[in-house]
Amino acid sequence: MSGTAEMARERVDEFSKRVAAVRESLHRVIVGQDQTIDLLLTCALTGSHALLMGVPGLAKTLLVKALSSAFDWKFARVQFTPDLMPSDITGYELLARDGANTEQNMVFRRGPVFANLVLADEINRAAPKTQSALLEAMAEQHVTVGGQTYPLEEPFLVVATQNPIEQEGTYPLPEAQLDRFMMEIRISYPTPAQEEDIVMKTTSGAVSLPPPVFDRAAFIELRNLVWSVPVPKNVAAYAVRLCGASRPEDERVNSFAKSYVSWGAGPRGSQNLVLAAKAHALLKGRTAPTVDDVKAVALPVLRHRILVNHRAIGDAITSDKVIERLIKETPG
User: Which fold does the domain 231-332 belong to in CATH?
Assistant: First the structure.
């Protein structure tokens, strides 16, 4: 093994040990949900945002708070409601005395978006104007208030939740904002044994959050390691082919997608497939991603980027079924 390869192997081993410590820390609080934890870690370790979908009572909020605690991040939760205003998220200016100065000036009061991890709970309950207040922060990592731009501290992640069964009086997220989330992670019900464990843990007293595993500087080192992982050209080409096969107007379109898709995944889909595949490979203890890593993350990365048409709704064809067909029929 060459010196470079040996050094890469050592870095991956160190990465695996650190991530294993985070997993262990999260499992002190969260029962089961192994796949959900790994997908959320994939988003966190790539500096990307995540959308959690699940019915009430599946510990979505607890999972996000536990992740923030394990990484020793500043955490903020915003409960989205129809009367929530953009300034309730970004902050606002008011006339006040600044410190010892006796003169009154416009002073900026920071909102909850100035945190390392922001939980946007039930994001689809707020009006589009308020939802869009997060868009600049998610895309640019800064907010603009009163003509002044304020940078956000690194790392900065938004994890939003939605309730898939209660849609009355809600505002569906626009496609431009959905595209800012790396993954749509769907949380399923626990098994009977897991549910018994949950009941025993949560009825015996308050649940304590896990202690920090390492600090923010150490996390940024891990994130930079994920970004620096080399990507074989055939892996990037496969991610591009997979997204191209989902676009009805593209000459590379898959016949199944052409029949059932109204809008396919854009270039951000290809970018996120490769980025998520890097993290997935490292989480599995490998130094570089393969086509199989892209396939493993394709569902959560693409399901909110592919919009099915009315024919698909009539034939009970979901975006997940389209993606599964694309994975099966797109050459690797």
Answer: Helicase, Ruva Protein; domain 3 (1.10.8)
